[in-house]
Predict the 3D structure of the following.
Amino acid sequence: MPNMLQVMQAFDRALIAEVPADDAQTLETKLATAARTLRDRDGWLKPHQRSAVLRRAATLLEGRQAHFAKLIAQEGGKPFTDAAIEVVRAIDGLRDAADEIRNFAGKEIPMGLTPASEGRWAFTTKEPIGVVAAISAFNHPLNLIIHQIAPAIAVGCPVIIKPAAATPLSCLDLVALLREAGLEERWCQTFITNDNALAEALATDPRVAFLSFIGSARVGWHLRSKLPPGTRCALEHGGAAPVIVDRSAAIERIIEPIVKGGYYHAGQVCVSVQRIFVHADILDSFVERLAARVAALSVGDPILPQTEVGPLIRPRETERVVSWIDEAVSGGGRLLGGGRLSETTLIPAVVVDPPAGAKLSQLEVFGPVTCVYGFRELDAAIDIANSLPFAFQASVFSTDIGPALRAAHRLDASAVMVNDHTAFRTDWMPFTGRRQSGYGIGGIPWTMEEMSEDKMIVLRHGG
């Protein structure tokens, strides 16, 4: 009898399902299957076959949007309206990967530039890098899986996907859907476990050529340190995303995007708005309007259509976030809002001027909290924004092009949004953390490049 993994609703901790957990022997079988699939070059899927599978899967997913949206809301706690948007993005992601196959090609390398290179024709082709191990996170339990397995399928890599232990159901149903779309199991296998040692064994097995990891920086960098020689990886972690609000910003137009960026999925997004630096001339007005909008957010059961902020993934996360808020307030920060609705659900909060050394100012909170700091000099605010050991996406709000461009140029970030929140993303744009926030590049076309290798062929002709 296999061990069973219990999957609980994030909001009320009610049991949704029990799924069989994989063991060490199952892991060995799946790794061996993936390695054997890669070695069988005559059995590699042709581009048109890979494209057809992805397009059929997109069509099947399109017909089951309500099912997946409900599943995301139940197991992950994301409000249903946002979960429905996640499914739409996942459908588009499958089609993005299929479309990219049309452009996924090598290039000619010029020859004849020296006498020694005459009489040769050189070009590159694309090959799958090898077996992909993908370890995913809970906060987008469908779309993150798409980000990892759709590029692998598109380039022809056998992939083993391990979803977060708290949210395996969306992954299992998606992989079943891929089977229905015609993809043989050997090309995309799931690995279900809450055993960290088994997850590490998957990530660090020498048969794995590429590790795709989405999750905590502590775990991701640890796994990278354990990878065998030659294994490549992409790590997607998080940060404490900064927002600069210039004194020229139109407050009445910026509150809504900032609130969306800070409290979407209860702040459980790797590029959530967290640290908001506001010019002193508009600080009081900004704080008043921000606090009023945050107080008006509908908090509760993510299945309900009116809910804007749902639960955190586990009770221990609420305890951590509350303790961080308490620390900031005891150090002099001013708390607006906050409180607890249930074991896993917090009432959104704003903390004004938390101490520079407080965890809320230094670490990724991954909860429904934003911090507001006043500033007089733009460059001083930017220096503080850049002072942490991680950097991902950032934003600046301004109606004056000068401060907007200065902030965009000087902020240490992989992407700077001008007059939009830090959590904006499309799945075809590059998405990458700097420094401790990540390694490698996400985004479906960019991940396809990461999961492939160029092979150069040189033909000698003539005398």
